[in-house]
Write a structure and sequence with these properties.
2 domains; binds the ligand O=C(O)C1=N[C@H](C(=O)O)C[C@H](O)C1; single chain; Dihydrodipicolinate Reductase, domain 2; binds NADPH dihydro-nicotinamide-adenine-dinucleotide phosphate; alpha/beta
């Protein structure tokens, strides 16, 4: 496949490397300084784009792909208020758009464990739920997209939790799920969900040891999406 890399930073570099190891060609590697290269790119020769840029750039990058009939896989976080617009455009263009806040298989298993635990805890009124995420200091958004997905899972499963809130310390109103975001190098991504009571704590934790799992997941999805249409996510890709 010919893969267009939109955002050639920490993730873009590992994605390119893994894609080439798997026999793919990189059509172009686009960063802020060479974004004008897109104007002369032969879009007919691009099979799929993988977009890991930054919150302010994701919407325009994805829109450009859809307008040029290129299936696009995006993992950029911190721009999701505009996602409904992209979904509309994808349907109108009869294109393909895949989004995941986290492409690692381990985190997607963790998402399911998180929902299961939240369902069990729904009747346990003595426990307070809270979350902590830890990432490297270059991360631009907080809380992480993964933390937001985890929080949304908890909110859907627990009647008493109505919303999440980014906080410095884990003390908020009863109906709010407090999320603490720590920035410590070189953490690639750690997420901890805790249920605390006077008697005990229950904790689930996912720790990424590197960015490899995120990058490999994105390349596997790009291989899978090539001939697909519509708005897709990890629930379409994973069969567990
Ligand atoms: N879903 C997932 O599984 C994962 C998601 N992420 C997310 O992916 C995103 C990228 O992460 P990461 O690689 O660590 O970040 P980096 O900052 O290392 O890389 C982002 C790159 O995007 C480039 N960029 C900026 N503007 C544009 C533009 N208009 N078009 C194309 N590229 C542009 C930046 O260029 P320059 O430096 O010149 O500004 C930079 O090289 C983040 O939102 C992060 O949260 C990260 C890991 C996993
Ligand atoms: O910026 C990162 O590094 C990461 N971002 C994603 C997120 O915001 O959830 C995924 C992963 O945690 C790494």
């Amino acid at each position: 496949m010919n893969i267009l890399i939109l955002g050639y930073g920490k993730m873009g570099r590992i994605i390119s490397q893994i894609a080439e190891e798997r026999g793919h060609k990189i059509a172009a590697r686009i960063n802020i300084e060479n974004v004008s290269d897109l104007e002369t790119l032969d879009t007919a020769k691009v099979d799929v784009a993988i977009e890991f840029s930054q919150p302010e750039a994701a919407y325009d990058n994805i829109r450009w792909c859809l307008q040029n009939n290129i299936p696009v896989v995006s993992g950029t976080t911190g721009w999701l208020e505009k996602k409904p617009e992209i979904e509309k455009l994808c349907e109108a263009q009869k294109g393909a758009f895949f989004y995941a806040s986290n492409f690692s298989i381990g985190v997607n298993i963790f998402f399911k464990v998180n929902r299961f635990l939240a369902r069990l805890m729904n009747d346990q009124r003595d426990y307070q739920v809270s979350m902590e995420e830890v990432h490297h200091t270059e991360k631009k958004d907080a809380p992480s997209g993964t933390a937001i997905t985890l929080a949304e899972g908890i909110i859907e499963e627990m009647e008493k939790v109505k919303t999440w809130k980014l906080v410095k310390e884990e003390k908020v109103e009863d109906q709010e799920l407090p999320v603490v975001a720590k920035r410590i190098d070189p953490a690639p991504g750690t997420h901890i969900v805790t249920y605390h009571s006077k008697i005990d704590d229950i904790e689930i934790k996912h720790t990424a040891h590197s960015r490899e799992g995120f990058a490999l997941g994105a390349v596997l999805v790009a291989e899978w999406i090539k001939d697909k249409k519509g708005v897709l996510d990890m629930n379409d890709f994973l069969t567990f």
